[in-house]
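Fold this complex.
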Amino acid sequence: MKKFINQTDSLFDESLQGFAKAHADIITLNSEPCFISRKSSKANNKVCLISGGGSGHEPLHAGFIGKGMLDAACPGQIFTSPTPDQMLAATEAITGDAGVLFIVKNYAGDVMNFEIAAEMIDSENVSVLVNDDVSLPKNHSTGRRGVAGTLMVEKMAGAAAEQGASLEECKGIAERTNTNTASMGVALSSCTVPALGKPTFNITDSEMEMGVGIHGERGHETLPLGSASEIVDIIASAIHEDLQPKAGQSALLHINGLGGTPLMEQYLIYDLAEIYWQKRGVKIIRSLVGSYTTSLDMAGISITLTLLDDELTALWDAPVHTASLRWGC
Amino acid sequence: MKKFINQTDSLFDESLQGFAKAHADIITLNSEPCFISRKSSKANNKVCLISGGGSGHEPLHAGFIGKGMLDAACPGQIFTSPTPDQMLAATEAITGDAGVLFIVKNYAGDVMNFEIAAEMIDSENVSVLVNDDVSLPKNHSTGRRGVAGTLMVEKMAGAAAEQGASLEECKGIAERTNTNTASMGVALSSCTVPALGKPTFNITDSEMEMGVGIHGERGHETLPLGSASEIVDIIASAIHEDLQPKAGQSALLHINGLGGTPLMEQYLIYDLAEIYWQKRGVKIIRSLVGSYTTSLDMAGISITLTLLDDELTALWDAPVHTASLRWGC
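Structure:
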């Protein structure tokens, strides 16, 4: 295993310390229990958005804390759910009268621990489950996973909260964004979890894992390595089939690198995906290309499409000032 | 070789097409000869900044075109210098009365081709050579290479140009930034150039290449794989020795991923580097963490320190709106 680390068990803390120092102008790190929150006074007049999940997906979620997006994030150890005491402490530290919205990726541990936290909290709070991964069937036993589309949910709901929307309104925006969003990923290599010290799965030089999540698990199926065009065709078709956009529909296209994929290849995938939807009459009016929801050092990409209406477009365009997403301020 | 490509020889074009589509709001792609320019009318009252170099370093340089930074970039094929006709066409397309400043990384091909272009251009123009890589001695036969510090030169000079500085003033800012900047990189893996189809060098699981450039060349020396603290100590010491900052000096600390390195590890390196300089009385007042100057899929990082004064700090903080660096607008 070759990584920039000192000890396997200190990676989490040291990386968080670096994050906190590099972005001390916008966030504050609380150590025990661990949560990262927006550097501002308690927001009495604003709905607070809290997300969280295992580490190893950086910049998700802490990189999206700040004006117009999240108010706090609770990081677990690598690929491990945070514990309810973290969500409870974050909620108590930042939430005012307007209530709190939990944004939760659909993984068993995250769902359970956010639910426990919700029960422990007195004040009004609601949760939204993100499940944008269309590599699993809609009727999958544990439901579809939440992957790169989580960013869109956090951005849209965060903008609404910043503009003074109520808790119910923020929840509605988050759910509509989730419904309008579909993602699917592919890996050319496994990631290596530090505590394990070796790749989580084996794959030959002539294979790819289609339909991977973001926790180093195997994909939905192992396929012969395809060209970029073949890969985009498989993924975009699955997304298109799921969302069934009408001709003339506007959309946001997000190409996400899974941690070990250079930007040059991500832009190539963007080109092919844009052509795919352009041929089907879908108008790509917004774009995001980069490694935003990662799986440690995995060489892979995911494609996310979010169908836009005027309201969602305006929420996407609204000012945001976080460590990893910033415009308009 | 596992990459998201169709044909090796179409990667360059397809990736550029994707870039142009994703950022059509701020840049325009010209195909023959190939250059990317800021989407705005000819700037008669502003010094124009043009940079360029081989591809494979994305987002450098095209990702830094826009308000407050570059006016145009000329990309060569992967790790290959652009040709003088590209710089000439870019210059003719965008430069007005205030003249043009070429920002050139110190590599033989880039230097030669920018020099030829400069000779072919009638209007006033000057060049600045970036040579921030301290892994090579100051008296190295071909001089030190230009690496991740190029971003700082482009940002500072770009902000000055945006504010109406003259050509000589912009050149002065660029040269001062270059003098105040030192970088050094390390690789845990080789990158794989698509046309070659295999890693450009071999390295065992227990080795690291210290002092790498950004073209897949071997480092200054092959060392036993060290801990993150040991790596930071080697690199930061070389930078500190070169810049010799006094106690109380303010600085910008940039941790750069070389393409295959997750953000989580980059933040850990940031933490350690910040501690290194904090112990020596250097005040890190600005930060940048991310993969901005890459070497295809190389797993590696570089550390860049730029000594700041009030003027350079203000130029760093000035509004910038490019594909990969954006704040204040």
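Chain B touches chain A through 57 residues (CB under 8 Å).
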